[in-house]
């Protein structure tokens, strides 16, 4: 344990590129200041220094390195392992995402996550909340994505309360579709109880989208995905969410889920309201090859990092990439700067969820940060610090 120790780190600030001296005391940044001189004991030129950025915050992730947060039975041990592995990948806070399933399976996953947080301090620190994606989503093909239609249902506050009890209050985000009757009252109750409602997997009318936002929905889940293959040119639910200034937009920037032009448009339209998520499935982190997903679906992970159904290569089987991959994709393609892509994956989602790490690289803020190298093409994570403690592989 190195809690309480003071440490000094020299690195290039991810925004300015300037050498910085970062002092960490215990679990917080004590100071972050420009390093005028060569750091003591280091003969290497400043360009050999790693870059430093705030820890990554993933609002939507279904699993990693073969660990599936939705594959019954989920054990707290799975969450502990995933938390440590994600830290090595630069993720200091995340929202394990529980997707549409039977009521019992959902409850089982929620209980396992809550149990992990009560027994494992690392999980308690890194799991900022649970994202419940479904089952209150559209049953329609396309809109529901890979969620099973038979488990989709109208929003049910009593049921959500039961699940929130099972989750020991950790459900912080609910993705739902406001196409169902009773959506407005449901959204209002969520808001009153501190649960962020995100619109996703929807076939809602533009009017229903507007009503949901007025009732308190604050976010769009992976905008552009979980949508019908064909939509009326206008009006439709994508335009409506793009146009709504009260809705933050989450995007899957893996290069496969939406084209670069769509990412570019959303970033332009949403500006500071745009955020990145991985939406990574359990096969993320594993090498290319043929796999069986959820114990029943044959999938292929290609050399290029795309995950598709084995018998229908045109259909994606989820994202197989974490946030750094998406940062690479956006920065490499010039859609935005590395620093902006990093912010959309760190302090912006942290601020959206009002996490203390929203302060980023500031004195007094939690010392959640990542040392990395940027090749111009790719981010290489070197070390991650969570609450001032070093994580490295
Ligand atoms: Zn989804």
Automatic annotation (TrEMBL):
**Record note on cofactor:** Binds 1 divalent metal cation per subunit.
Signal sequence segment: none
Q: Which InterPro entries does the UniProt record give?
A: GlcNAc_6-P_deAcase, Metal_Hydrolase
Question: What are the protein's UniProt keywords?
Answer: Carbohydrate metabolism, Hydrolase, Metal-binding
Source organism of the structure: Paenibacillus oceani
Any one GO molecular function term: N-acetylglucosamine-6-phosphate deacetylase activity
GO biological process terms, semicolon-separated = N-acetylglucosamine catabolic process
What protein name does the entry list? Amidohydrolase family protein
**Catalytic positions?**
279 (proton donor/acceptor)
Ligand binding (Zn(2+)): 133, 201, 222
Family according to the record = Belongs to the metallo-dependent hydrolases superfamily. NagA family.
Task: Decide whether keyword Membrane is in the record.
Answer: no
The taxonomic lineage of its organism, from the top, reads: Bacteria, Bacillati, Bacillota, Bacilli, Bacillales
Entry cofactors: a divalent metal cation
The UniProt record gives the binding positions of substrate as: 146, 225-226, 233, 257, 316-318
């Amino acid at each position: 344990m190195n809690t309480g120790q003071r440490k000094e780190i020299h690195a290039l600030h991810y925004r300015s590129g300037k050498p910085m001296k970062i002092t960490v005391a215990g679990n917080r940044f004590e100071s972050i200041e420009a390093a005028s001189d060569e750091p003591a004991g280091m003969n290497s030129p400043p360009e050999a220094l790693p870059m430093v950025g705030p820890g990554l915050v993933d609002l939507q992730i279904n699993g990693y390195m073969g660990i599936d947060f939705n594959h019954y039975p989920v054990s707290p041990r799975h969450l502990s392992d995933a938390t440590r592995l994600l830290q090595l990948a630069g993720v200091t806070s995340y929202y394990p995402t529980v997707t549409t399933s039977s009521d019992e399976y959902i409850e089982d996953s929620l209980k396992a996550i809550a149990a992990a947080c009560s027994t494992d301090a690392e999980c308690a620190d890194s799991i900022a909340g649970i994202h419940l994606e479904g089952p209150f989503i559209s049953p329609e093909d396309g809109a529901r994505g890979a969620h099973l239609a038979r488990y989709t249902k109208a929003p049910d506050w009593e049921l959500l309360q039961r699940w929130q009890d099972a989750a020991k209050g950790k459900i912080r985000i609910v993705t739902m579709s406001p196409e169902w009757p009773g959506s407005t009252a449901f959204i209002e109750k969520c808001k009153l109880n501190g649960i962020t409602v995100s619109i996703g997997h929807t076939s809602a009318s533009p009017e229903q989208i507007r009503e949901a936002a007025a009732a308190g929905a604050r976010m769009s889940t992976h905008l552009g995905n979980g949508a019908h293959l064909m939509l009326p040119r206008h009006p439709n639910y994508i335009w409506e969410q793009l146009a709504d200034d009260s809705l933050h937009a989450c995007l899957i920037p893996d290069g496969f889920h939406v084209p670069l032009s769509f990412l570019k448009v959303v970033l332009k339209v949403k500006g500071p309201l745009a955020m990145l998520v991985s939406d990574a499935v359990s096969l993320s982190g594993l090498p290319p090859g043929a796999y069986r997903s959820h114990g029943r679906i044959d999938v292929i992970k290609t050399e290029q990092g795309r995950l598709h159904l084995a018998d229908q290569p045109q259909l994606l089987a989820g994202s197989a990439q974490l946030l750094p991959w998406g940062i690479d994709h956006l920065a490499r393609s010039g859609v935005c700067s590395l620093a902006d892509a990093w912010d959309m994956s760190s302090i912006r989602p942290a601020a959206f969820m009002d996490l203390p790490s929203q302060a980023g690289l500031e004195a007094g803020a939690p010392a959640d940060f990542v040392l990395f190298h940027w090749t111009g093409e790719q981010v290489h994570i070197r070390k991650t610090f969570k609450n001032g403690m070093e994580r490295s592989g």
